[in-house]
Each structure stands twice: as C-alpha cells, then as structure tokens.
Amino acid sequence: MRERFDVVVVGAGIFGLAAATELRKRGHSIALVDRFGSGHPLTSSTGRSRGIRIAYDHPFYVELARDAIPRWRALEAATGRKILHLTGQIDFGMPEKLAGIVAAVRSVGGEIEELGAAGLRARLPHLRLDEPGLFHAQAGTVLSDEAMAAMKAQVLAAGAALYEPERVIAVETGSAPRVVTDRRTLEAGTVVIAAGPWSGALLADIGIDVPLAPAVAQVTFIAAPELVDLPGIGEWGGDEDGLGGVYGHPVPGVGYKLAFSSGQQGWAPDAVEWKTDPQEQARLLGWLDRRMPDFPRTVQLTQRHPWTMTPDGDFIVDRVGPVVLACGCSGHAFKFGPALGPLVADMVEGRPAHPLLALGRSTLVSKTVAANDPILR
Ligand SMILES: Cc1cc2nc3c(=O)[nH]c(=O)nc-3n(C[C@H](O)[C@H](O)[C@H](O)COP(=O)(O)OP(=O)(O)OC[C@H]3O[C@@H](n4cnc5c(N)ncnc54)[C@H](O)[C@@H]3O)c2cc1C
Known about the structure:
Blueprint: E1 2-10, H1 14-25, E2 30-33, E3 50-52, H2 59-79, E4 84-86, E5 89-93, H3 95-107, E6 113-115, H4 117-123, E7 133-136, E8 140-142, H5 144-157, E9 161-163, E10 168-172, E11 178-181, E12 185-193, H6 199-205, E13 213-223, E14 232-236, E15 246-251, E16 255-260, H7 278-291, E17 299-309, E18 316-320, E19 323-327, H8 340-348, H9 362-366
Parallel strand pairs: 1-2, 1-12, 2-9, 5-14, 12-19
Antiparallel strand pairs: 3-8, 4-8, 5-7, 6-7, 10-11, 11-12, 13-16, 13-17, 14-15, 15-16, 18-19
Helix pairs in contact: 1-5, 1-8, 2-5
The chain binds flavin-adenine dinucleotide.
C-alpha cells in the first residue's frame, strides 16, 4: 500500500500528538504511525499523572508552561475530560537553582513566592525543612492518561490518519522522502521523528547522530486520597542515594505520587515490560522518613517508564533536510502538551529552530550524557 501525506509523524506520544494536531490546524495532511500504540505502557507518555510547573530556571520554559495551561484548559472544554489539577508547587534544595527559578519566572512576569521554613510548612505541613524555598500557584498535576486520550481524540477529529500499532522500519530521505512501516509505505513531504527513546536509532539510520540517553524511571503512588489538595514538590539536588532529588504531586482518586528525578540505566529498545525495582521503592520510603515523616506509607502502585536525556537537559526540536526532530524529552516534556505542537510545526514550515532546542547548540555537543543523569530543568 502506498499513500501520500504532507507530513508523516513517527510516534504518537505527547510530542507526536501535539505536532500532528497543530499541523492539521495549519492545513497539512498528516499521518501518525505508532509502534506500540499511543500511550502504551512501554513508552514515555503513559501512566496516570505528570507534574506541571512554571518554576523553570529559563524564561523559555516558563513561558512555554504558561502557554500550555490555557491550551490544556481548552482541551478539557473541547473533550469534557478533566486534565489539570492545579494545587501549586513547593521547590527547595540547591540555592543557586532556586535563585535561577525566581529570576526566570519573574523576568517574564510570572508569580513565585520566596518563603522561609515556616512559610513552607504552612503550605505543606508534612515537609521537614530548615531551609527556605519557593511556592508558586501555576503548578500541580496533569492527569496524563486523560490528557493522552483527549489529545488522540482531538487529532483524529481533526482528520489525521493514525496507524497503530504499526512499526516504522525505515525512513528514506532524499528527493521523495518515504516512511516504510511493517504494513505500508507512506510518501511524505516532511517526516517528523517523535519516537521518544527510540528516536536515536531511527535518526542514526539516516545519518543523523544525536546524543540521546534513554533511561527508565520509577514512580510510586501513595494511597492517601485525603491529601489530594496538597501542593506538588520539587527537590533540586539532595543526592544522598545517588538518585537525585525527589518530586511529587497529588493524584485525584489515588493520593500522592513521588519519584526520584534520576532515571536508571537498563533501557532496551525491544523490552516487553519494565519491572519495578523494590530497592528504589525502599529508598523512596527512606526519603519520606527523613523529609516527610508524618506522610502516609501505603504504596498503591509502583511503575517504571522510559525517558530520554540530552546532555544539557533541553529538548531537540530542529530540522535536517526533510526530517524534523522532536525528541530528547529529558524527563520533563509532558506538561507542555499542546504547547509543543507549534514548536514542531514551525520546523515543518521552515522556520528557524529556537537556539535552546537547536541541534547545533554548543551544549549538545560539548557535554556528555548518561542515562542516570538527573532532570536538569
Ligand atoms: C517516570 C516518568 C516521570 C515523568 N514525569 C514528568 C513530569 O512530572 N512532568 C513532565 O512534564 N514530564 C514528565 N516526564 C516526561 C514525559 O513523560 C516525557 O517527556 C514525554 O512523555 C515524552 O514523550 P515523547 O512523545 O517524546 O515520547 P513517547 O511518549 O515515548 O512517544 C514516542 C512514541 O514513538 C513510538 N515509536 C517508537 N519507535 C517507533 C517506530 N519505529 N515506529 C513507529 N512508532 C514508534 C512509540 O510507540 C511511542 O508511542 C516523565 C517521564 C517518565 C518516564
């Protein structure tokens, strides 16, 4: 079978769905192909929830997150699904990181409070901290399974073709680009590679080498529905166990999700499941003993999922010939959801890449990346 589209998007995770939706809005014909199926448990864009915050140490991400919130709200209104649960967030840890966050948020007119330990305890009584930190209100939780279902419904309603589960086995560049799947050949004006942890191999096959390090990261859901209105937390640094700081947020219907901000080695492209690590769970409960001793301890669920680190913690959204790259999520892309679409669509339409996300940026080539690097942004 042979079909032709203006753009073929490889991967229907959050990057691919957002790109396809925006490109349909701009009038392009679109096919999306997904190997496992959008939101499959082996992929990055899966599971119950993700944290959302505008607390970033670079104004680009602050503005992107502020742009994402009304877009998520519009998606809620269009699909009737509840996607956002915003209860604010407390950030603490490395003073230089916190100072960078305050500067970046305020530089674009965002609101963030600097609080002493007593002020932080008033926001989250369970937290045992002697040091100052930050609180901001435009933060909390994205209900990611609802968000993925809503994004998928929206892109299908907009007229994109979605082939899933279907695996892209070759991308042919040149004067007439083609995407070859295990079932058909799709001719494309532009090919978007939004294949999450699998992007590096697909890109290497067409001669584009990108420093990407897929990792698997674990999340723990504490059963405590009464805590659902608590703010989220973000600990920067705090590396006692070599697993980075801890982040967390409330999850309606469950309680609270907690996780270390470093993934671990061991990602494999053809894995059929990610087994949870009981030792990591024990270390997380040890962190709770130190930082939040009064917090409930009943673990409802522990899951592992993959993400894809870059050397500098920034995404890659750029173009090489007929191929657009939308990858290198660095563990923090989900919150931006629909706001990722215009970034990718601009590349398809030939606009220049944002310097922070460009393939040629110096921090992408001058630094090395390891799977267990912590989330940097
Ligand atoms: C444990 C964990 C916690 C996280 N927490 C947060 C958070 O709190 N806040 C936040 O903002 N972000 C968070 N993230 C990051 C966020 O989930 C990712 O940045 C985001 O989901 C990346 O999406 P993606 O579209 O790049 O990749 P994916 O969702 O992996 O999408 C890629 C898709 O490509 C498909 N594919 C692969 N190979 C092929 C092929 N050959 N042919 C066809 N299709 C193919 C796959 O099936 C997959 O569906 C977290 C991630 C993890 C793993």
